[in-house]
C-alpha cells in the first residue's frame, strides 16, 4: 500500500466514531432517487472500501462504494450503507452517480502515493468537477472495479491520456 493511502487509512481509523457524516444527511435529490427506482438495494454487484480524492485534491478519504446496475453510490462508511439496508431504502447519506455516459481514464502522472488509481468522468452535475479520482490498495482491486464498471456500462470509454 502506498504511503499516502497508509496515512489516510490510519488517520481515518484513528478518528473512527468521531467523524460526522461529511456526506450529510440531507435527502437525495429527486433525480438521484429516480436512478434508484427498480434497483434491489440488497443485491449489489460490487461493494468495498475505496479511497476517493478530496475535492481540493490534497488528500484521499476512505469511502464505501456500492455498484448496482446503472448506478454507482458511495457512502461515508459501511455502517451508513448497512443502516440504509436495514431501513430497506436509500434516502440520504450517499452520493449517486449514473453510469450511462460515464467514462474512465488512467491517471498520468500518478498522484503522490496513489499507485493504483483511475479517474471517473461523470456525465451529470452530481459532482461539481464532474470527475472523481479513485485509488486502491493494489492492482487487483483496481482491475476488479474497472471490470465491473465496464460490465455495467458497455459503452464505457477508457481514455488513456489524462
From TrEMBL:
SUPFAM superfamilies: PH domain-like. Transmembrane segments: none annotated. It comes from the Eukaryota. It holds the Pfam family PH. InterPro entries: PH-like_dom_sf, PH_domain. Residues 43-154 form the PH domain. This is PH domain-containing protein. It comes from Amphimedon queenslandica (Sponge). The gene is 100642007.
